[in-house]
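Backbones bend. Shown next:

***
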Amino acid sequence: MVTADLVKQLRERTGAGMMDCKKALTEANGDMEKAIEVLREKGLAAAAKKSGRIAAEGLVEAYIHGDGRIGVLVEVNIETDFAAKNEEFKGFVKDVAMQIAAAKPEYVRREEVPTAILEKEKEILKAQALNEGKPEKIIEKMVEGRIEKYYKEVCLLEQPWIKDNDKTIQQLMTEKIATIGENINIRRFVRFERGEGIEKKQENFADEVMKQIGG
């Protein structure tokens, strides 16, 4: 069965149009990889053809926001040094850095979320659903839906772009791949916020002192 979510995923991976993605998935009986092959054969998957190519050049962008309150470092790779100097690529990297500053992602993509954290999140969501009095038989489906929402909150590529909420960062990147003509990969990032974690460290320090004096 070809669902709207499958069509969306195929569009994000290939940069092809929605109708082309739907037709390809229908032809491939819902198989994502076969649908990508169908689009490539028809010359419609601009980004997919480049996604396997190595992107080792690129930029490390530094972005400081709010008089030094938030700082971001992000590495975005592209295939050639020449393309790394492209103004459109530079603009994309800056947009990504601003996204990280504003939206506070924790990971680049969902595959990076540790299994232990994901399982803990599922436990919390299941407990919430039970506390809401939801029927046991629909809780599993509810948890799956809420986990998808969780991915959209913590995974950079799945977040709505702050400049256009109708577009995800993955879709924006796919568009840039098609426009620039080279594979692009957001490799890693770090985000710092002034004062973040200080209170917790102070509490931990207080606990250690109390233990030392026998409190």
